[in-house]
Specification:
Helix content: under 10%
Shape: globular
Strand order of the largest sheet: 1-8-7-4-5
Structural class: mainly beta
Radius of gyration: 14 Å
Distance between the termini: 31 Å
Number of strands: 8
Bound molecules: fe (ii) ion
């Protein structure tokens, strides 16, 4: 069986361009989740090399199943100043773990988590 922790990378010498950065704001019975890839150093954005998508999941503390919050897909447009990002607002006060995954068409799958 494939070890997903080896496929979904979270740290190596290319991590600052690929690991999805997760920012959380909580309050007023809402959870705001913003995920950006390349926050520190932008990944290239060319047809040959770009971020294809970001997926966001919530794994509630009282549950074992991941809830899919949403997905953003990107196409290369040659402007590396625009970093791939997506934001969601949940009407919830749940606690648990936010999992974000991303895919670079050259450097593969990446992941990050933040505890709520
Ligand atoms: Fe890349």
């Amino acid at each position: 069986m494939v070890d997903l922790n080896e496929i979904y990378k979270s740290a190596d010498w290319k991590s600052e361009k690929h690991v999805p950065a997760i920012d959380i704001e909580k309050g007023d019975n809402k959870i705001k989740i913003k995920v950006m890839v390349g926050k520190e150093i932008a990944n290239p954005n060319t047809i040959e090399h770009h971020i294809r998508w970001i997926d966001v999941y919530l794994i509630p503390k009282d549950g074992k199943l991941a809830l899919h919050v949403g997905r953003a897909e990107f196409n290369a447009h040659g402007d590396s100043a625009t970093k791939p990002s997506v934001s969601f607002v949940l009407n919830s006060e749940k606690t648990g773990t936010v999992l974000a995954t991303s895919y670079c068409n050259i450097h593969g799958l990446w992941q990050n988590t933040v505890e709520l």
